[in-house]
Design goal:
The complex is a heterodimer of chains A (about 425) and B (about 425). Chain A is α/β, with parallel strands linked by helices. Chain A is built from 15 helices and ten strands. Chain A has two domains: about 240 residues, Type I PLP-dependent aspartate aminotransferase-like (Major domain) (Aspartate Aminotransferase, domain 2), CATH 3.40.640.10; about 110 residues, Aspartate Aminotransferase, domain 1. The relative contact order of chain A is 0.15. Chain B is of the alpha/beta class. Classes of the chains: A alpha/beta (about 425), B alpha/beta (about 425). Chains A and B meet through helix 2, helix 3, helix 4, helix 5 and helix 14 of A and helix 2, helix 3, helix 4, helix 5 and helix 14 of B.
């Protein structure tokens, strides 16, 4: 560990690896999947866990709640909303399920989704279809796509339903939209889409799993109907900490995926009581400490210069790193003309040809990447084209992308060889 | 802080074991039943798993973790006599209850039978099912202390009444929710008998065994519930957020996690013989799985104390003796039936308080005075117009803890009675 003036701003790049827990010989290019957290956040976690165990009654019945409220206040400041509009949940899936499963549907109701939503979210909507007879309208954008085209695609679909039904919104109850999709890892113009949906009386359920810590958020301005984001992805908190935002106007509509003693049905329009905070404050016994690592995570990020500086470095690195990898592979970065897709994750086309028998490719990238090259990036197939998604982070620099580029080149060459041999 | 004895010597139950745990020296934990706690060796295991995960999260989540989770399930399956494949790890009992109750294809007019003593959150969940599916709730209201026979008879009568109404086995009751051990009062329920009764009448059994594993012996193979949930973090010494859901193979096609998985598949089509139970429950969104894996360290620690039987023997006896002691000091009695089947590791003692309209603040008072001021908290609760307290016996406790708790409770009760009488004068 180098000695340096503690007041000096830290340098982004490899020197920050010391602040984290990752193995020295591993090149972590996949922050986007599961996140990771620095040592000081781990310490905060353990301090909270020890504090809890010293007198669990005192902790759970009194001392924990002010801490959780403070954490929500901090997050509220960061994303411009009130603490009372936030609830901690374990992960985005939990938040999305809470909303989707709470909403009441009528005969003929529809839900809009993009084919690019996360697998589990797609299955959640399928569950709604199976159990509530909701019709799913699945739009299938092909990336790279311009923001205008994506918004237009959604607008077309809405207008089509309106024409069919003669009703504003066309009986579409809500749309599930990402703030940033997972595969490809691309920014979605969700703020514009929210406005569009609002114009047509359609609720917006925003899966912002990848949002906080990666893009600037202003929920007051964006004004989604429901928004969920993982703190443990890009904000450096411990896994199992996410937040669900529900503006006051919608709070009576939602109940947790795990019903608690505070549950109260608010279907009666004369019922103006609000049990949102009470219902979401407890989902059964769990370890609440991960939520409280928000403080240490934000302190750490401040010590690096704050959100803007982090974004500046990471976004820049994602672009430069992506271009570098594309050059090494002889391919290109997945980007639209206005260059609005890339935040901290960058998608690069892989020099491999998709074919019927390529189902084993993911496993090969895991085996070769994780174990052999100690440098893993997930491959994915999008409309018949193979890409990989690389995550830029404060502890990485261009040499990490370079190394990854060469590892990918080797893996791809091997796979192409197997494909050609298979053909024979 | 380890005792300096020969580590092969069997440990002594009682205060010497406090050194194994993380409880503050000046705190007397009388309420293990609410949130559990875990020994230092389990904390070590937790941290080791967390470090391992963070060392290379890709390897952990995409490969190595699943083997560990499977091994942990196998250990638990051996303990409670079932197959590992019929178990799923979940965060807590409420999650399991929600997964089952919200998955089953209830239709309007179906009925769910439950006791009034089920956990508040479980009751709320059933009300949610009622509100959203048009299910009718039949709530039976036993008065404790009640004999096992009377409780079973009460349930049987309710079933027969429904059957008479519609002339169908089970009536329109599709499922019954029952505890292994209720929370307030903290009493053992003859769930094995009740399950048999329900099976006879074609009624599904959803058993909330939150207070099950580690407190009473379990044999799911014999008992054969339709659905069984138990918290490992309550009485088994694992870290909070680790519980298990057991779903009998015959029912797995119906059950999906409360958090829909990418592997979700609807099996309503009876010709669909595919199985996705295991996969659907294997991932409920990103979380820290380390809590589940503290199963190993927890079971090892319990073995080092002599194993489940020895632990249950010590704690069961302590609960009884401790309860009697508290009752004596308070001048009241233990809540127990004639055959003495209600007390497992938790004992309920009547408090010397007169219930009245404005006693809503009493629970807070027990908390403030007990937990915060006197550092010795046993929850006070009102049950059918009578105030009780529930005390939990544990391996790190002795009778002197119960004695201390009794005096704290006595003081609090005297104060509350004084306030009540002063209030009356006004």
């Amino acid at each position: 560990m180098q000695l340096f003036d503690i007041n000096a701003k830290k340098q982004f790049g490899k020197s920050l690896r010391n602040d984290f827990i990752m193995a020295d010989d591993y090149t972590p290019m996949n922050h986007g999947s599961y996140g990771t957290y620095p040592i000081q956040v781990q310490k905060a976690l353990r301090d909270y866990q020890d504090l809890a165990e010293r007198s669990i009654d005192t902790w759970i019945k009194r001392d924990m709640y002010p801490e959780i409220y403070r954490a929500k206040e901090k997050l509220g400041q960061l994303i411009s909303c009130d603490a009372d509009e936030l609830a901690f949940v374990v992960n985005t899936s939990t938040g999305i399920n809470a909303v989707a499963r709470s909403l009441r549907f009528e005969e003929g109701d529809k839900v809009i989704l993009l084919s690019t939503i996360y697998d589990a979210m797609g299955r959640t909507l399928q569950y709604l279809k199976d159990t509530r007879n909701v019709e799913l309208i699945k739009l299938d954008p092909v990336y790279p796509i311009s923001d205008d085209d994506l918004v237009a695609m959604i607008e077309d679909a809405i207008l089509k339903e309106e024409a069919k039904t003669g009703v504003t919104g066309g009986k579409i109850k809500f749309a599930l939209i990402d703030a940033i999709t997972s595969v490809p890892g691309a920014i979605v113009p969700y703020e514009r889409i929210i406005k569009l949906l609002r114009d047509h009386n359609i609720l917006s359920l925003i899966d912002g799993a990848h949002a906080i810590g990666q893009i600037a958020l202003n929920l007051r301005e964006a004004d989604p109907d429901f928004f969920v984001t993982n703190c443990h992805k890009w904000l450096f908190t411990v896994r199992g900490s996410a937040i669900l935002y529900v503006p006051k106007r919608n709070q009576h509509l939602v109940h947790p995926a795990t019903i608690s003693a505070a549950y109260k049905d608010h279907s009666d329009v004369n019922d103006t009581s609000n049990t949102f905070q009470a219902e979401f404050s407890w989902h059964g016994t769990q370890d609440f400490s991960p939520y409280l690592t928000v403080f240490a995570a934000l302190e750490y990020r401040e010590s690096l210069g704050g959100e803007e500086k982090i974004r500046e470095y990471c976004w820049g690195l994602a672009r430069r790193g992506g271009a570098l990898v594309a050059k090494i592979l002889g391919t290109d970065v997945l980007e639209n003309e206005e260059k609005s897709l890339t935040a901290q994750m960058v998608n690069v086309r892989l020099p491999i040809v998709a074919h019927d028998g390529d189902g084993y490719y993911l496993d090969r990238f895991i085996d070769e990447g994780v174990y052999k090259h100690k440098c893993f990036v997930p491959p994915f197939k999008h409309h018949g084209v193979w890409y990989t998604r690389l995550s830029a982070q404060v502890y990485l620099d261009e040499s990490d992308f370079e190394k990854t580029g060469y590892a990918l080149k080797e893996i791809c060459a091997q796979l192409e060889k197997e494909r050609l041999e298979g053909k024979k | 802080m380890a005792p300096s004895s020969n580590h092969h010597a069997k440990k002594q139950f009682g205060h010497s074991l406090r050194a194994d745990f993380l409880i503050a020296d000046d705190y007397t934990l009388m309420n293990h039943g609410s949130y559990g706690t875990y020994p230092a060796v389990v904390r070590t295991a937790l941290r080791q798993y967390q470090d391992r995960a963070e060392n290379c999260i890709d390897t952990w989540f995409r490969r190595d973790m699943y083997t560990e989770v499977q091994k942990a399930k196998e250990k638990l399956a051996t303990l409670i006599h079932c197959h590992a494949d019929d178990l799923a790890f979940i965060a807590n009992a409420s999650t399991g209850i929600n997964s089952v109750a919200r998955s089953l294809p209830f239709q309007s007019g179906d009925k769910i039978l439950q006791l009034s003593t089920i956990f508040a959150a479980t009751g709320a969940t059933m009300r949610f099912v009622r509100d959203t599916r048009g299910v009718e709730l039949i709530i039976l209201d036993p008065t404790y202390p009640i004999s096992d026979d009377d409780l079973v008879a009460m349930i049987e009568e309710a079933i027969l009444k429904e059957e008479t109404k519609v002339g169908v086995t089970g009536g329109k009751i599709k499922m019954a929710v029952l505890d292994t051990i209720s929370s307030t009062p903290g009493v053992r329920v003859p769930f094995e008998r009740i399950i048999k009764l329900l099976r006879k009448h074609n009624i599904l059994s959803l058993v909330d065994g939150a207070h099950g594993i580690g407190q009473i012996p379990l044999n799911l193979h014999e008992t054969d519930p339709d659905f069984f949930i138990s918290n490992c973090h309550k009485w088994l010494y694992t870290v909070r957020g680790s519980s298990i859901l057991y779903v009998a193979k015959r029912n797995q096609r119906y059950i999906h996690p409360a958090i829909t998985s990418e592997y979700y598949k609807d099996h309503s089509d009876l010709s669909d013989m595919s199985e996705t139970f295991h996969k659907e429950f294997s991932w409920q969104g990103t979380q820290d799985f380390s809590g589940f894996l503290t199963t190993f360290a927890a079971l090892e620690y319990r073995e080092s104390l002599g194993g489940e039987e020895k632990i249950q023997e010590y704690c069961g006896n302590l609960a009884r003796r401790g309860g009697e002691l508290v009752a004596k000091i308070l001048g009241t009695e233990v809540m127990e039936n004639e055959e003495k089947t209600l007390t497992a590791m938790m004992v309920n003692v009547r408090l010397p308080l007169v219930a009245h309209e404005n006693d809503g603040y009493y629970m807070e008072r027990f908390l403030e005075e007990g937990a915060f001021k006197r550092k010795c908290f046993a929850p006070g609760y009102k049950y059918k117009g009578t105030w009780y307290t529930r005390l939990s016996a544990q391996v790190y406790m002795e009778e002197s803890d119960f004695e201390k708790a009794a005096h704290v409770l006595k003081d609090i009760c005297e104060q509350l009675e004084q306030e009540r009488l002063e209030g009356q004068k006004k």
